[in-house]
């Protein structure tokens, strides 16, 4: 699929990438306790006795966390294991009060699945690639060390301790930074559609460990490094590029790659060594004696499946086939669940106003949303979620264009004023006197004035220079301050110039 290669002194190198994505499960409480999980709470204000590992405390699995992980597995077409088990992963760190993490190594909740990515939105057919998912298991998060609160001591915040995570482990199927970025973005979109994770990477509720190795094309896999806790799609792509380049330089200088854990420094765009990479046996995994195996029945699985929404790929296909959108527009509108919801609300409101079917208005609505509203919001540095214009407000504006009240060029001005003031389109058109003129008398008068002022160009046009027609249209619209009905202006000009 990808022809991405790193040029070294000894020839071309291929990069091999796998991602382990840690996604915080959407739940009001933690994986094994009733403590809250709200982001941004005061340090150590969301810690139960279980999370703090007080003696005699026993974990109880949170049904909602298991349900969300199962739904996520179903959304990526993965095998759901009816029987799974929790293991203890033993290591000692100041933010891990138990001295072990409850995870799943040998019998995960979810088995193999796959995610399909499109690498070029303008060529969705020719740039599709399937990335395998090896497993999804649930585990508890550790706490957080805060090194900047005191000159000589580190503080411990246990609010995250015990928060439910899904670890989504890909196969080493990616071969370029673009593929890794597309996979992470698609996975985030799926999680947000399903509602199993909010995908807020800047808040740490989704982060990726990036496994990178290099090899000469066709040779066996090389030794991999793992760069921990990368928190944006852009940084994941940067890690792949800089780490692969570093490995090639080491190998070409006659060195060897050490299997190790690394950290990414976005300011310098480099990875640096953190510690040598442990193997599974170093963690001395064993079945957690405090927890029975998880056994899922058919009714629970059926309930999980029935609760799934329409997923991005299915929605995209429906937009193309049932609504007649271009593959590019369908891709843009389904890339994020909030965008898709906004678009569907816009189409529904526009159809209700016009008394037409949604398919009749979807194309116009999608073009307006992508080119006009996205463009205007972009200039303001805002996302769709912060738009002062609602789907209903957008539908009102589209209705004014459709019934000839305003022209397309006037609609751009109206949209700007809607974004500035938050007022409705009809109120702005009325207040500013922006209604389109369909009065043929007024249009004829404007055309006559333009033709009289440009007699030389009229002669050139009649002499065969037909490209000047656009000039006359522009001059007439300018004379009418953009309010002339473009179709009528065209008609009158054609008649007068004939």
TrEMBL record:
Pfam families from the UniProt entry: GatB_N, GatB_Yqey
- The record's EC number reads 6.3.5.-
* Reactions listed under catalytic activity: L-glutamyl-tRNA(Gln) + L-glutamine + ATP + H2O = L-glutaminyl-tRNA(Gln) + L-glutamate + ADP + phosphate + H(+); L-aspartyl-tRNA(Asn) + L-glutamine + ATP + H2O = L-asparaginyl-tRNA(Asn) + L-glutamate + ADP + phosphate + 2 H(+)
The enzyme's main class, written as a single word, is ligase
**Family assignment from sequence similarity:** Belongs to the GatB/GatE family. GatB subfamily.
* InterPro entries per the UniProt record, alphabetical: Asn/Gln-tRNA_amidoTrfase_suB/E, Asn/Gln-tRNA_Trfase_suB/E_cat, Asn/Gln_amidotransferase, Asn/Gln_tRNA_amidoTrase-B-like, GatB, GatB_C_1, GatB_Yqey_C_2, Gln-tRNA_amidoTrfase_suB_CS
| Organism field | Novosphingobium aquiterrae
What highest taxon heads this organism's lineage?
Answer: Bacteria
Protein name according to UniProt: Aspartyl/glutamyl-tRNA(Asn/Gln) amidotransferase subunit B
Q: Which UniProt keywords apply?
A: ATP-binding, Ligase, Nucleotide-binding, Protein biosynthesis
User: What SUPFAM superfamilies has UniProt attached to this entry?
Assistant: GatB/YqeY motif (SSF89095), Glutamine synthetase/guanido kinase (SSF55931)
The function of this protein is: Allows the formation of correctly charged Asn-tRNA(Asn) or Gln-tRNA(Gln) through the transamidation of misacylated Asp-tRNA(Asn) or Glu-tRNA(Gln) in organisms which lack either or both of asparaginyl-tRNA or glutaminyl-tRNA synthetases. The reaction takes place in the presence of glutamine and ATP through an activated phospho-Asp-tRNA(Asn) or phospho-Glu-tRNA(Gln).
State the oligomer form and interacting partners: Heterotrimer of A, B and C subunits.
**What PANTHER family would the database entry show?**
GLUTAMYL-TRNA GLN AMIDOTRANSFERASE SUBUNIT B MITOCHONDRIAL AND PROKARYOTIC PET112-RELATED, GLUTAMYL-TRNA(GLN) AMIDOTRANSFERASE SUBUNIT B, MITOCHONDRIAL
Q: Which residues form the Asn/Gln amidotransferase domain?
A: 341-497
Q: Which HAMAP family match?
A: GatB
